[in-house]
Amino acid sequence: MYMERKGEGIVGPARIVRVTFSKTGNSLSYGGHTFSTLGGYGFKANYVNDSTGEHYWISGCKKDGTDALYSTTVVIDEDVREEYWMKIRNKPESKGVTSFRCAGKYSG
Fold this sequence. Notes:
- The chain is mostly beta strands.
- It has one helix at about 80-90; strands spanning about 1-5, 15, 20, 25-30, 35, 45-50, 55-60, 70-75, 100.
């Protein structure tokens, strides 16, 4: 999944991660934290970290790598790196790449 913390603005640190969904699908877990859906009420965000209150945009990864709305650097977690480059992006030559610059949908 693509995960971007919104913090103080509309752009924040981003990662490609593996999450675990709850049985109801209303929340997910990553890195020891639980994220609950904002139910369509977030500004450029769709989940909230239950323990910190920080807002996040979390979505499935796009095949072309244009997950961010605005330009940001995306770090890929080690446990999903090879799968991301081989299966999602179809770029096996990049399987050693641990981060990349995403231009963003609205950056130009």
